[in-house]
From TrEMBL:
Putative sensor domain ranges (all copies): 27-206
Catalytic activity: ATP + protein L-histidine = ADP + protein N-phospho-L-histidine
Domain Signal transduction histidine kinase subgroup 3 dimerisation and phosphoacceptor intervals: 232-298
CDD domains to which the protein is assigned, alphabetical: HATPase_UhpB-NarQ-NarX-like (cd16917)
Protein name: histidine kinase
Signal peptide: none
UniProt lineage: Bacteria, Bacillati, Actinomycetota, Actinomycetes, Kitasatosporales
Enzyme class: transferase
CC annotations in GO: membrane
Length: 454
């Protein structure tokens, strides 16, 4: 099989023995036919949509027509492999959440969508005649020349070759047939060059730009960092749980046994008791540290039970209500748990609230967690309440954070994270299943709004 680009093949002596001229002819034939069809569709649908737009019925058709370049460009990317075999990456990013609405929102915001529409219009109104005329010339002209002797024999008097000149001599017809046999070899070079130029133009318009590639790589690296971060948290939690914590338990037991052997009431017994008490306190602090790094209940039972565990340890009474279809990706559950933990910690330290409530639900590919309290309000991200760090943490998983905390309260913190639930029969992946190749919108903080008069 020949290798290299079509331009390199044109400078090599073995072009006629390779399959490139045939692939070039097939490429031009397919792109010309597709361009003719696309031009017809754009013209007819655009006319109908323009007329119906006067009564607003054609507006959805116009919106759909704007996406006509997406499937056309996908077909063109496949056809480009006929020319030089090189794959063409799609410049589109996957929506962060499932559903048609999310897909349309992403597509209409991408520059690639409009480039593809422009390319579809260019192919549908300008390029297809060039493609089909070139292929037709290569196929029709040699065929007419080769068939000249046969047509002359059938007519008996003369034959009109290509509708250009009349041939009456069998010798001239035979010469034309020989020329017809040799002509495809001579036309192979310009035909391949035309296909290579046509493919180069398509690549310029349809390949991802440098900025799109860089952004895609940044998001891919962000996904890898999220996975690595979660894996490291789990490793630290496991090492502390199975290592340092077990040794502290053993130390506490050894001190307890030593107290039994020491004379009761003596200085040694008192010091051993103090050492055992210190070991127990260190063990309790270590357990709190382990639970803060990554609680085991989050891994074993999921986000609702982990949030309920945080609420049980809150100094403010908290009601926890979750409605989830099942387990979510580990990165999403970790971010949601961290948001609830930070919010309840802020409520206990700063709000002066008498009660709080945590609501979690999943709908339309979006996990929504709301934490509200009846405290004094006035939460200010600049005051060191942890909201800025929480917003950064949520944005890592393409989530958004909004806070409404007018002076006098109440305070509402809402976290929204796009994700897809894990299949019940399969283990949940550590990362987001459909992380978008482009960064999502940054987390935003809504400034406190003035309190409405009662």
């Amino acid at each position: 099989m020949d290798t290299g680009t079509a331009w390199q093949a044109l400078r090599r002596p073995g072009l006629l023995r390779s399959g490139r001229p045939w692939r070039a002819a097939g490429y031009l034939l397919l792109t010309g036919s597709a361009g003719l069809l696309m031009g017809t569709v754009l013209l007819l649908c655009g006319t109908v949509a323009g007329v119906l737009a006067l009564v607003l019925v054609g507006l959805p058709l116009l919106a759909a027509l704007a996406l006509a370049g997406v499937p056309f460009a996908a077909l063109e990317r496949r056809l480009l492999r006929l020319v030089d075999g090189r794959p063409v990456a799609a410049p589109h990013r996957e929506p962060a959440r499932p559903g048609l609405a999310a897909w349309l929102r992403v597509r209409f915001r991408e520059r690639a969508t409009w480039r593809e529409l422009g390319y579809a219009a260019l192919a549908g109104f300008v390029l297809w005649p060039v493609d089909l005329v070139a292929v037709g010339f290569v196929l029709v002209v040699p065929g007419q020349l080769i068939a000249s002797p046969l047509l002359l024999a059938l007519d008996g008097e003369q034959v009109n070759v290509l509708k250009v000149w009349q041939v009456e001599s069998p010798l001239v017809a035979a010469v034309l047939a020989v020329v017809g046999v040799l002509l495809p070899a001579a036309l192979a070079y310009p035909l391949t060059a035309l296909a290579a130029g046509r493919a180069a133009l398509a690549r310029i318009l349809l390949e991802p730009t440098g900025q799109e590639l860089r952004i895609g790589e940044l998001v891919s690296s962000r996904a890898r960092l999220v996975d690595a971060f979660e894996a490291e948290r789990r490793r630290i939690e496991r090492d502390l749980h199975d290592g340092a914590q077990q040794r502290l338990v053993a130390l506490s037991m050894a001190l307890g046994l030593a107290r039994l052997d020491a004379p009761p009431g003596g200085p040694l017994a008192v010091r051993l008791a103090e050492a055992q008490r210190e070991a127990v306190e260190v063990l309790a602090e270590l357990r709190e540290l382990i639970n803060g790094i990554h609680p085991q209940v989050l891994t074993d039972r999921g986000l609702p039970d982990a949030c309920a565990d945080v609420a049980d340890r809150s100094p403010v009474p908290v009601e926890v209500v979750f409605d989830l279809p099942g387990r979510l990706p580990a990165a999403v559950e970790s971010a949601g748990w961290f948001a609830v933990s930070e919010a309840l910690a802020n409520i206990g330290k700063h709000s002066g609230a008498r009660s709080a409530r945590v609501d979690g639900r999943y709908a339309g590919g979006l996990l929504t967690i709301e934490v509200r309290d009846d405290g004094v309000g006035g939460a200010d991200p600049a005051a060191g309440s942890g909201l800025t760090g929480l917003a950064d943490r949520v944005s890592v998983v393409d989530g958004t954070l909004t806070v409404s905390s007018p002076p006098g309260g109440p305070t509402l913190l809402r976290v929204e994270i796009p994700c897809a639930p894990c299949p019940p029969s399969l283990p949940c992946p550590p990362s987001l299943p459909g992380l978008a190749p482009l960064p999502g919108p940054p987390a935003q903080l809504i400034p406190p709004s003035p309190r409405r008069p009662s």
